[in-house]
Structures are given as C-alpha cells and as structure tokens.
Write a structure and sequence with these properties.
Blueprint: E1 2-6, H1 13-24, E2 28-30, H2 31-39, H3 43-50, H4 52-68, E3 73-76, H5 87-94, E4 98-102, H6 105-112, H7 127-145, E5 150-153, H8 159-167
Parallel strand pairs: 1-3, 1-4, 2-3, 4-5
Bound molecules: shikimate-3-phosphate.
C-alpha cells in the first residue's frame, strides 16, 4: 500500500506521515529528505546553487522512482510537488490513498513564521508579508491539492486525531 500526504509547507506532512507509518508499521519516506540524500545537498543549497527548475526536475524524477518501486510506504510530498510536472496525475494514477492535509492561511502563517529561513520559497519574505504571500500561493496551489482523494481538515487537531482520520479512509 502506498499512502501519500500532500499539502502546503507547514501543514504537518512529515510529522503526520511519520506517525501514520508507525501506526501502520510501514516505512516512511519524506520526498525532500530523499532528494537531499540523492543530490547530496540540502534543499536551500539546491535552490541557491542549482535553481528551482533543477529542483523541480529532481523532485519529479525521484517521485517517479519512489512510486515505481511499488514498495509499501507512507510518503510525504513536498509542498510544491503536486503542482508541477504532472505529479498530481502520477500520484492519483498510482494509488487510491492520496490525502490533502488542509489548514487555514493564518494557521500556516503561525507555523511558518519561525521556520521560514530554511524554506527557499519564503525565506526572502519579511515576516509581515508572509500571510499575504501564503494566501496568494495557497490560492494558486489549492486546485492541485484538492484533487487528492481525501481532504483532511487538520486545524486544531492532534497528530493522533489526524492519523486516525486518515487510517479510517484507507482503501
Ligand atoms: C516547497 C516545499 C518544501 C520543499 C521545497 C519547495 C514548495 O517542502 O519541497 O522547499 O514549493 O512548497 P515542505 O512542504 O516539506 O516544506
């Protein structure tokens, strides 16, 4: 069984994915970690030295590689993964278990404000501009995320509650 979590940066894909994998006794893979390992640089370095287009190419290539392996796993995608290179079609055609972790713009802003320096998409923004940026960015990305088989409202929920909601919908 391949289970994929998508959603905006800061929506909890990695934490929830790890907890879900523990509960189901499945391996967990974070696509960003895999890209870092394979390229041999961390994500900010890849963006800085090679640029976003290189990153998106690698993201697509490694996503395909992971899904093609047919190994059972819980995969947390990067925030942009579903929005490029036909990746969302690839995900939806590979598994019936694609979940969108849904959170509001204010909640995402609150999470990301302290962590933005490690995230190349938002590291250049002033803290006071973050909420407006996320609002616009999520407006562009939501149509991709919303194609997931299930949207899981995550606001105000514990990791355990989110894991239980996903586990109840697996096919
Ligand atoms: C990105 C999100 C990041 C990472 C890269 C680009 C994006 O993943 O893939 O910085 O375009 O939203 P997380 O959502 O895991 O932070």
């Amino acid at each position: 069984m391949q289970i994929v979590l998508v959603g905006y940066m800061g929506s909890g894909k990695s934490v929830v994915g790890q907890a879900l994998a523990n509960r189901l006794q499945l391996p967990f893979l974070d696509l960003d970690d895999y890209i870092e390992q394979e390229v041999g640089k961390d994500i900010p370095e890849i963006f800085r030295q090679k640029g976003e287009i290189f990153f998106r190419k690698k993201e697509h290539e490694f996503l395909r590689e992971v899904l093609d392996s047919k190994d059972d796993l819980v995969l947390s995608a990067g925030g942009g993964t579903p929005c490029y290179s036909g990746n969302m079609d690839l995900l939806l055609n590979t598994t019936p278990n694609v979940f969108y972790l849904q959170m509001s713009v204010p909640a995402l802003t609150a999470r990301l404000i302290g962590e933005k320096d490690h995230r190349p998409m938002i590291s250049h923004l002033r803290p006071e501009d973050l909420q407006e940026y996320i609002g616009k960015h999520l407006f562009e990305r939501r149509p991709f995320y919303s194609r997931a088989h299930h949207s899981i409202p995550c606001e105000g929920k514990s990791v355990e509650e989110i894991v239980a909601a996903i586990a109840g919908k697996l096919v």
